Amino acid sequence: MELGHVVVLAGGLSYEREVSLRSGRRVADALRALDIPVELRDTDATLLDALATDPPDVVFPVLHGASGEDGSIRDVLELVGVPYVGARPDACRVAWDKPTAKAVVARAGLSTPESVALPKEIFHDLGAASVLDRIVEHLGLPLMVKPTRGGSALGASVVRDAEQLPAAMVGCFAYGDTALIERYVEGTEVAVSVIERGGEPYPLPAVEIVAAGGRYDYTARYDAGDTEFVIPARLSPEAAERVTAAALTAHRALGLRDLSRTDLIVTPSGEVHFLEVNVAPGMTETSLLPRAIAAAGLELSHICRDLLIQRFT
CB of 182 within 8 A of CB of 166? Predict the structure, then answer.
């Protein structure tokens, strides 16, 4: 099947704009390597007119952060009747909100760290010190603090001492109005990507993440050399099976389609804990999905083309 006109959407106005632009260029270059006509577009005031004037065969959204992953841009694409790669808006909204996603996968049988979601207003209205004391008393230490919505570890931090918690909350609220505070689980951090082939979810090799500073933060994610990636992850055969099963369960339970990446922690005893899922995985040179595709012996260009064809048909 011939793809005559493909639009790759990248950029947007979120904190992750620069990463999205890098991802978009990577996808566009991969498709052009197969002689597929590609137009790389930002989400600006000219987008809707362009889609209406010259409708593409398929759109490949590579938008990270708000609007790109919360379902809103996909809502617009559905309004104008343009097919696109990736999860539909309702599934995006569920996956984008971390506490909601955790609740859904927990009902599906996955383990996820105990947590509390705390809006900024409650933090102030009830008295920060009192609320934080109760959190530490209930969840213990260490803790992971991160925005309930967002990616690339922006606003996320590990709290090992109760005195660090107020600053962690302030840092978190700089990137979102609600903080997710969850019990920090020590172990091996892995990411398992899922792509759909022939309508069926296909798990890629688990990627083990070993950040130089011990934290897979924004810098570690996108600066080459700051993180070691081990593929396949150094897990026992049983644990490897469990992380694969967990990623497939999350993909299905959340109603995702085409591609996703699930972040997990494996404890020294082999227990697997769901952390979060990404409906628009990064496609940069340092991103995990392209690494997993290569480790599986597949070509990024072929996978991107196949995902487009699935939606075009």
Answer: no
Annotated catalytic residue, options 14, 16, 69, 193: 16
287 is catalytic: yes
Question: Active site includes 114?
Answer: no
Radius of gyration, alpha carbons of the chain: 19
Catalytic residue among 23, 67, 193, 287: 287
The residues, ordered by sequence, that sit 6+ positions from 160 with a Cβ below 8 Å of its Cβ are: 141, 142
pLDDT in tens, 263-311: 999 999 999 999 999 999 999 988 999 999 999 999 999 999 999 999 9
Q: List residues forming the annotated binding site for Mg(2+).
A: 263, 276, 278
Query: Taking 70 as the threshold, does the pLDDT of residue 109 lie above it?
Result: yes
Residues contacting 269, CB < 8 A, separation 6+: none
196 included as an active-site residue: no
Across-strand partners of 259? 195
